[in-house]
Amino acid sequence: xxxxxxxxxxxxxxxxxxxxxxxxxxxxxxxxxxxxxxxxxxxxxxxxxxxxxxxxxxxxxxxxxxxxxxxxxxxxxxxxxxxxxxxxxxxxxxxxxxxxxxxxxxxxxxxxxxxxxxxx
Length: 120
Known about the structure:
A hairpin with a 5-residue loop joins strand 3 and strand 4. Helices cover 32% and strands 33% of the residues. It is elongated and about 65 Å long. The chain has helices at 19-29, 34-42, 47-65, and strands spanning 7-15, 74-83, 87-92, 98-103, 106-114. The mean pLDDT is 92.
């Protein structure tokens, strides 16, 4: 990321999905052009793809409006998901007992950079 001078970032916090599930979808779009990444996410049947698509569209809007970047030259240079806060819950089981479990959340970050050449 040393040769790129301009970049745009978008982030969502506390998404109600496990970071493990999000990272599986982020692997598909990392390094791809922004248009190609949108197409991949639209045709993916995973729940995480819809959440990531919103973040990617936000990053593209940030790049165009805030940084003045060309949408045709954008690519996903950085995409990662970190663990968010876990919500502790209890599930009722037999004989009046309860078993604990956790709802995991994630913080999703996508950074778009502009290619310096004409190639995609």
